[in-house]
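Hi C.,

You asked whether I'd gotten around to modeling the 327-residue construct. I have! Everything is below, sequence then structure, no commentary in between.
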Amino acid sequence: MSQPAPNTSLSQSARLLCYLGPPSAILLTSLASPRTALLSPLAFLPTAYLFRQWRASNTRNPSRRGELEPMFWTYAATGTIGLASAALIQMALALATSALLFRSSAARKYFLTEIQRSTLNGLTADELTRRAALAASWQNWVFNGALSFGMAALVEETLKYLPIAYARRRGTAEQRQRRSRAYVDYALAGALSFGVIENIAFIYAACEKKQEAWPRLVLTLFERMVVGSVGHLLMASLTALRAIRRDYDGERLTFLGVVGPAVVMHGTFDFVALTCSAREGNVGWIHPTWVGNTAAMFGLLGGLVVTTAWQVRQEWKALDERDQKRK
C-alpha cells in the first residue's frame, strides 16, 4: 500500500467534513435561495485553485510547507467560529461607536437602520433626501472611518493573523525552523475560508434582498470573486510574509508592525468604497450607480489591489534573497 505524500494525510473526520461540508452548505443555501445555491460553487474556486498550487509546491519541497490536516481545520474554524466571533465584535463596536456619535436614541436608531439597508427600493423622495443629509453629516464620515479601519480592517486582519499565531507554536523548534513557508499556507487557509463565507453572503444579498438582474449579478460576482477574493488573499500573504521576517529573520516587529500594512490597505479599500457610496447620498454600502463615480471607485480600488500585490511581490523577492544568503 503506497504511503501518502508528506504533509497530505488527513484524519477520517477531516475527510468526512471535506467531502460533505461544501455540498451540505450549498444544499442549505438552496433552501433559502435557489439562485444563490446555483452560484455559490463559484465561491469555492479560489480554494480549489490554491490547493492545487500548494500540492505542487509541497511535492517539490515538503519540508517547508504547512501540513494539510491543521490547514484544513484552520479553514473550517476560520469560516465558522472565527467569522462568527469577528461579527459579534464588529457589532459591539458599531453599537458603541454609534452611541458616541449620536446622543439622541432616536437619531442613533435611525442611523443604524439606514446603515443596514441594502437597497433603496420603496423609499420615497423625502426619505431619500433625509438619507442624503445623513450621508453628508460628520457623524457618518467618522463612523465610516471607524468602520473601515477599526471594525473591518483591524478585526478581520487580526482574525487572519490567528492561523499564523497557531503555526508559530506547532511542532518542535527544529520543525518550525524548517517550515519557513508554512505561515503563508496557514494564513491563506484562513483567508480562503473567510472569503468563501463572505462571498456567499454577498451573492445572497444580491439575489434575494436586492433582487438584482443577471447583468448586475455578474458585476457582483466580479467584484467579490475577483477583486474581493484577491484582496483578502493579498492581505493575508502580506501579513504572513512580515511575520516570517520577524520570526525567521530576527527583525524586531511588533504585532502592529506585522499586521499594520494589511490593516492600512484593507481600511483604505473599504473607506474608498464607502466614500463613493456616500457621494451618491447613501449611508453604509449601496453600490454606486453614477458612471463617473463607479469608474473612479474601480480605478482607486484597482490601484490599491495592484499596490498590495507589488508589496507582496517585494516581500517574496526579499525572502528569496535572504534564503539564498543562508545557503
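If it helps when you're writing up: The CA atoms of residues 79 and 193 lie 5 Å apart.

Thanks,
B.
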